[in-house]
Design a protein that fits this description.
- With about 350 residues, the chain is α+β, with helices and mostly antiparallel strands.
- The chain has 13 helices and nine strands.
- The chain has a six-stranded antiparallel sheet.
């Protein structure tokens, strides 16, 4: 497709310039002339839109994605066609994609990586509760704003592709080969647990600056996802806490049932880990003792101290006030009793 900067799509969207390109579409920065706002325009590949089955399924998936109203998911505004160009109009997000951020930084700090992944889990978990599986989660589909907010894009495109390749196990259908789950590598349909696996690969890459499995050949890469155990992320970044490594290796389990079932569950585990890590910074000795006594295979069982483990200073204060109040009444009672001729303790 030739460069279309300066043209107007659908009589409404003025193209300002290209933002990026992928295997299925090109993305442009544009301005909505009706609402006077900046938007992102995704133009689908020409060979895809020639297939009526794809166009029908893609419209269905675009409508489903447009109903995902969540601050961590890029909002879909519109869908249409102009001549032979099919396009989606989406929220324009300033910033960069997560893949570019990782390449620029090499790897992210543990706190930043877990914070971003917790946000991503909340967004993907919302979609799972709505009955949608992304199927193609990867850092290129995660946009990060300058203030550190993560937003997911491209819901529905992989499923739309499956409608025109129903018996195809090629990665163009069921995700990107570096990030898809073993069941996707075997040609099976994805599930929420498949998205969780992809999130694990993304977190591994954020923490180490590399992928758990790397190969030039797609077939070899698929075989690695299917059969090889993932390497220890601490081997590439010793600063990763042991508890976080155990969580990550569980997410990268070959069997879907051995992972966390949904992105929501994965996010809750990361939230617990982050709370524990904060306590470890404040109380290093207590954290060391807890680490020595905890079971190494149960990272999700290690929880921050509960309210019952802390001194209830409010109760102590109320008890002291009550003591002083009662203690102050005793001298007053003695004085009144002594003034009475019938006082039982009156001196004779």
């Amino acid at each position: 497709m030739t460069e279309i900067a300066g043209t107007i799509l659908g009589g409404r969207y003025s193209i300002l310039g290209q933002l990026g390109a992928g295997g299925m579409a090109k993305v442009y920065h544009a301005r909505d002339l009706n609402l006077q706002r900046e938007v992102a325009v995704k133009l689908l590949r020409e060979d895809l839109i020639d297939d009526p089955a794809f166009r029908s399924r893609f419209l269905q998936e675009a409508r489903a994605a447009a109903n995902l109203l969540h601050p961590g998911i890029v909002t879909v505004y519109d869908f249409g066609h102009d001549e032979q160009r099919f396009f989606i109009i989406m929220e324009y997000v300033q910033g960069t994609d997560l893949k570019t951020l990782i390449r620029r930084r090499g790897r992210l700090a543990v706190r930043e990586a877990t914070s971003l992944m917790t946000q991503i889990c909340a967004s993907v978990g919302y979609a799972h509760r709505a009955g949608l599986v992304h199927c193609d989660l990867k850092p290129q589909n995660v946009l990060v704003s300058p203030d550190g907010r993560a937003k997911i894009t491209d819901f529905g495109i992989a499923r739309a592709l499956a409608s025109i390749y129903p018996d195809e196990s090629h990665p163009v259908v069921w995700g990107s080969p570096q990030y898809f789950a073993p069941e996707q590598a075997a040609g099976g349909p994805p599930s929420p647990a498949s998205d969780v696996y992809a999130l694990g690969v993304i977190l591994f890459e954020m923490l180490t600056g590399r992928l758990p499995f790397e190969a030039d050949d797609i077939a070899q890469l698929s075989e690695m996802h299917l059969t090889q155990p993932p390497p220890s992320p601490r081997a590439f970044n010793p600063q990763i806490p042991m508890a976080l490594e155990l969580i990550l290796l569980k997410v990268l389990s070959k069997e879907p049932a051995a992972r966390y079932r949904t992105a929501d569950q994965f996010g809750r585990v990361l939230t617990t880990f982050a709370a524990q890590a904060d306590l470890a910074e404040v109380h290093p000795l207590a954290a060391e003792m807890a680490s020595e006594s905890s079971h190494p295979n149960l990272p999700t069982q290690i929880l921050p101290p509960t309210a019952g483990d802390r001194i209830d200073w409010l109760a102590v204060a109320l008890g002291l006030v009550a003591f002083l109040a009662v203690g102050g009444l005793i001298p007053l009672w003695l004085w009144a009793c002594l003034l009475s001729p019938n006082c039982p303790i009156r001196l004779r």
